[in-house]
Please model this.
Amino acid sequence: MRTTIVPGVKTAVGESPVWDDARGALWMVDILAPSLLCVAPGGEVTQWTAPEQIGAVARSADGRVAVALASGFCVFDPK
Model:
């Protein structure tokens, strides 16, 4: 296995990396921040603060993402 550091991404505890083929982007969470991150094809990092501890992310076919929060699952629309 080969690993590569993703430039521009700084997390306390980065977890749950998910590749998004439709966007050509990488999603992940920072459990301690707590935040959801998306790394775009050009390397631009967008970060959203979560209302509570976040543990995982999964993409959906409609462009939204599901996130696992401490209190349960929810759907997030990054648009």
User: Anything to note?
Assistant: The CA atoms of residues 37 and 47 lie 4 Å apart.
